[in-house]
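Bug: token stream looks shifted between consecutive jobs. Job 1:
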Amino acid sequence: MGVLQEAGETGPLYNYFASAPFKGFRYGGTDPTREFERLCRHLVAKKVAFYPRRHDYLYQRFHEALRDQFILVFGSDIDDRRVWVKLAQRIGTYLPASYSLEYVRDAVWNTHVNLVDVMNPGIPDGQIRKFSTLEALINYSLVESRPLKMFLRDTDRMSLLSCLLRRMPDDPAERQVFEEAGPGGPLYDFFAKYNHRGFRYVPTDPTTEFDRLCENLGIPWRSDARDGLRDEFAQALRGQFVHIFGGDINDKVAWETLCRRAGLRPIPEDLESLQQLFIGTHTNMVDVMNESIPDGMMLTFTTVEDLSEYSFSARKIFPGDGVAKVDILSVLLRRISLYH
């Protein structure tokens, strides 16, 4: 039995389509967004008053029902291994005989599928279309498909659905934060000093690139030379953060850019709400600076303790020495130091 079939033909989405005012409409158990469009045509044929404001109301209720159906089927707790296992089964992600929460979460997280397709009972488990890049998924969801295959944002920002939707922009034309900034900056300048030694910086995990540089230069792990080079690297990485995002804690644009980078939408309009939103989203800052991770694809954690454990176990520690006490970084990095 498939994942969606286990829940049966019941739940918020089925109840929505079975509403009495819809005059005998039968949900076909296929693409939910297309079924909503068919419902609208059905109501027009039945000569139901269907002015734009009523359409918007029905559309909002439909998406609330779709969201609640997703939660009914899969759950919402991002720390529950079972919800990730069920998603893996639904989208056809291979899992070994034994696996941890971190393993299955990463496997599902890095599989690009459309969530409306995930909720389509007409698509068997394991046959949902997968996309090789996030850009291809965005184009399919927000440009090619008619109607658009999209969920509305979940009001619970730390739910499973909210986390999965962070990778999807509101506007398909929206550029990635690092694409908008372009290459260059203090970190690029730091690594470029060693081009003559045959090293070429690859803008991925900056801490991994630093380790690769040391290996390229033949610098031992525990040595004064490595410590000195690490200090230079730390200064460059902090400078790169300021180059991309800014440093003034009262800079509204800086916090908006950080929220875009983490995929936190809708983005608040006032400074205090922006600060609270990003600070309350526990994200590793080395991952934030990893250009190979698309916007909204960084892992987030429900507690600072979990973030700290991930940061130290993965050796993804953003250097904090020398950060100004009123700098954005001082606020974001202080959380990790308190738990180490």
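Job 2, same session, no restart:
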Amino acid sequence: MTDTPKQGDRIAKVIARAGVASRREAERLIEVGRVSVNGKTIDSPALNVTPRDRVVVDGKPLAAPEPPRVWLYHKPTGLVSTNSDEQGRETIFDALPPELPRVMSVGRLDLNSEGLLLLTNDGGVKRKLELPSTGWLRRYRVRVNGRVDEAMLEPLRKGIVADGERFQPMEVTLDRQQGANAWLTIGIREGKNREIRRAMEEVGLNVNRLIRVSYGPFQLGNLARGAVEEVRRKILRDQLGLTSAEMGDDPAEKPAGKTVRRPARGPAKPTQGAVRAGGPGPAGKGAGGKTPGPRNAGAGAPPRGKTGGPADKRPGTGPRGKSPGGGAGTVAKDPRPAPKGGKTRR
């Protein structure tokens, strides 16, 4: 067993890398005696291991780590973003396609929120995407009840304190007042618990619909409710700065980008056909020609074609978030140059 810091990796990192649990969850497994190394049960995560060590979790040998993968998931309302729920409510993991490997969610969307949720099989990637230091803008379309003017939104742009907790300045744009409701586009970088809902309450507004449309360079686009789409490996490597070794690149491996479909929840019909991550669907349409926008476009739908707010200018981020129906499910523009002769790369 290797216990010098200069050799190997922390055991919690190794367990997370194998997709068994996140680092924090792995540390809890170790503390309760569910992990052994070379036949000896351990109770502290302060241990480094190398590929020569035999790690067993819950009686099962730790498999070799799979290459990191990330998926875009259009979370519907009514699902909780946890592995299990004390109240017995359905979770996102209950609704995911069975052919997916074991995945973890990057951050959360609460029960009544919908839109883009990132999934990954790699605990290290999950941690990297969630770190505040990443600084990626998360953009939301938000419907609030009440008459809204610019003066009400100014405290949000300066940074507000709600329930004794200070939130960083938000990017807030008033898109449209529609009867008793108004649609806003809001960009945040922290993603604290119920941050937008709590901040809105602080200025006297009640959120009655919240849709995440982007997370850094990853866009919801026209991905149907309940659908899952894998991010292309090249885009994943470029956006996260992963080395070829970290990606486990194999020259013979086929590129990712396959879309896995589940029937849409509610009255919306599931889309047909695959949408390639980082590229558009059929000409003039999203996947299957459908959009995952509001169920009743005449009753409080977000205005079409609007995103509001300035584009995210931080390095490594893609175009600003689009409202549902604003484009095909996408991640980032393909960095490959177009071939000679003026033809467009498909």
